[in-house]
Design goal:
- This protein has nine helices and eleven strands.
- By secondary structure, the chain is of the alpha+beta class.
- A hairpin with a 2-residue loop joins strand 6 and strand 7.
- The longest helix has 17 residues.
- It is elongated and about 90 Å long.
- The N and C termini lie far apart (70 Å).
Length: 290
């Protein structure tokens, strides 16, 4: 697949031209507008590669190698495109990390070699679910081979997921002054929350309710992740294990920015009753409803 042809632009297209072409093509072929879903995916794949200077450079290198006879055959080309698709989905701005092409593009194909650069630096950014909800700026410090301490501000986007990697070009190591600096790769870690469970953009929480409230019905107060208090009506006779959905109170999606759902799972609390008179009353009620 030719990414430039897919978007309908020339190989010299500017960032602005790429963006305009992408908007036009994605609207034209969007499945919600009756477009072809496969074509829509190809358009997104093409734009995801060409909008990033690093990915675009690698893609152009592959195209040139394929035309110039540097041993880049059709089998290699197909493998390259598959690696690019996987990288777009998994590694964001680090397109060849973890693939069979990582070594090749560090050292070049045949006589065609990429300019060497310094090593990348990997750091962790630990955030909680509240940071995922609102986004957060973190100050990160790390040491370079030269002994210098680098301090940068890392922007954790809303909706970030555990394991996501953010790449900052030119903020990596600088040990070899002849070569360009490496990149800074920030891996996001989101520890498990004590109360909330996450499933993509949805959040779930468990609420324990007295058995009599389940029998009679009640209204409970749910405090959301962003500290809003919502009333949730529990109908009479609700069974343990029931789950209620509250739309729009989950986590934001990184692409659409729309929030997922909040799910409230109901568990039951059985009170310990030792008073004989109370137990006799409960027994009487039981006999009446049987």
């Amino acid at each position: 697949m030719d990414y430039y042809s897919t978007l309908g632009v020339s190989k010299s297209a500017s960032d602005k031209e790429l963006k305009q072409a992408y908007k036009k093509a994605s609207m034209q072929h969007h499945p919600d507008r009756g477009g072809d879903e496969n074509k829509f995916k190809e358009i997104n794949e093409a734009y995801s590669t060409l909008k990033d200077p690093h990915k675009r450079g690698m893609y152009d290198h592959q195209q040139t190698a394929g035309q110039g006879g540097f041993g880049f055959n059709q089998q290699n080309r197909s493998g390259f495109e598959e690696a690019m698709r996987q990288a777009n989905a998994q590694y964001g701005n680090n397109p060849f990390a973890g693939t069979q092409f990582e070594h090749h593009f560090q050292h070049g194909f045949g006589q065609q070699q990429q300019t060497p650069r310094n090593q990348d630096i990997h750091v962790r950014a630990v955030v909680d679910l509240k940071d995922v909800l609102t986004g957060k700026n973190l100050i990160v410090q790390y040491k370079l081979q030269t002994g210098r301490t680098e301090t940068v501000t890392v922007d954790i986007p809303k909706g970030a997921k555990h394991g996501d990697t953010i790449q900052y070009q030119g903020l990596g190591d600088e040990g070899h002054p002849r070569y360009p600096r490496g990149n800074l790769l920030v891996r996001i870690q989101v520890p498990k929350d004590k109360y909330w469970q996450r499933d993509q953009d949805n959040l779930s929480i468990k609420k324990v309710i007295n058995v009599f409230d389940l029998l009679l019905g009640c209204v409970i107060i749910i405090t959301t992740l962003d500290k809003k208090q919502l009333e949730l009506k529990i109908p009479q006779g609700t069974k343990p294990g029931a789950k209620f959905s509250i739309p729009g109170y989950g986590l934001p999606n990184m692409q659409t920015h729309q929030r997922g759902n909040m799910y409230v799972a109901i568990d039951v609390e059985i009170p310990l009753i030792t008073d004989v008179n109370t137990l006799n009353k409960i027994q009487h009620i039981k006999n009446e409803i049987q």
